[in-house]
Amino acid sequence: MNYKTVIECDRDDLKQVFAEVTGELVKESILSKLEGIKLPTRTACELLGKSGTTIQSYVKRGLLVPMDRQSRNYQFDLRQLVEFIINKKSEV
User: Fold this and answer.
1) Domain ranges of the chain
2) Is-contact 32 83, C-beta < 8 A?
3) What class, spelled out in words, does domain 11-91 have in CATH?
C-alpha cells in the first residue's frame, strides 16, 4: 500500500526551506576544507578563548574529541573546533 503526504505551504515557507538548505550546503562546503587540519591545544585555547583546563574538561565530558588521545599534548581537528564554536553561538 502506498501513501502520499501532501504538505501545504506558501511562497514564504518555500523561501525559508530553500534558505535553510542552501545555508547548510554552503556551511558544509566551507567546513569540509577545514577537515584534517590538526591544531595543538594551545591554538585550540586561543581559538575558543578558553583555558587549557577548560579544554581538558571539554575532552573529559566528551564535548571535544582530540585526534590523538595518547599524546600528552592533544591535537584537535580544525573543523570540529569551528563546528563547536558555531553550535555554542547558536545556543545563545
Assistant:
1) 11-91
2) no
3) mainly alpha
